[in-house]
UniProtKB/TrEMBL annotation:
Species for this entry: Salegentibacter salinarum
InterPro entries: YjbR, YjbR-like_sf, YjbR/MT2646/Rv2570-like
Positions of transmembrane segments: none
Superkingdom per UniProt: Bacteria
One Pfam family this sequence matches: YjbR
Protein name (record): MmcQ-like protein
Organism lineage: Bacteria, Pseudomonadati, Bacteroidota, Flavobacteriia, Flavobacteriales
Length: 121
């Protein structure tokens, strides 16, 4: 998966913005101001940090040890770095992105969740 495919999928989700808060090399995707994905613009191969349920994170790292690693520069209990070198199928990567987005969305305040629900309605 290339960076444009990753970006297009992330920004297609409801309430998502993209920012460069850590400088020009790290693209950050947020839902209602909360981070759910980060990617280095110069990473080869492309990789993305995604939030993950702690139990599932460990299982994924064991099953895909070469492509799913503890989150680089993140809380390793809650974040994975996913290497997008073509080994993982795009549909599976989309599921991981959705999981991250949904975890962050579930942690929003009730007010933020309502604001997200009201977007584009």
């Amino acid at each position: 998966m290339d960076i444009e495919t990753l970006r297009n999928y992330c920004i297609s989700k409801k309430g998502v913005t993209e920012e460069l808060p850590f400088g020009p090399d790290t693209l950050v995707f947020k839902v209602m101001g909360k981070v759910f994905a980060l990617t280095g613009l110069d990473s080869v191969p492309v990789s993305v940090n995604l939030k993950c349920d702690p139990g599932k994170a460990v299982e994924l790292r064991e099953e895909y040890e070469a492509n799913i690693l503890p989150g680089y520069h993140m809380n390793k209990k809650h974040w994975n770095t996913v290497i997008l070198d073509g080994y993982l199928k795009p549909g599976f990567v989309y599921e991981l992105i959705d999981h991250s987005y949904n975890l962050v969305k579930a942690g929003l305040t009730k007010k933020q969740q309502q604001e997200l629900k009201d977007l584009n309605e």
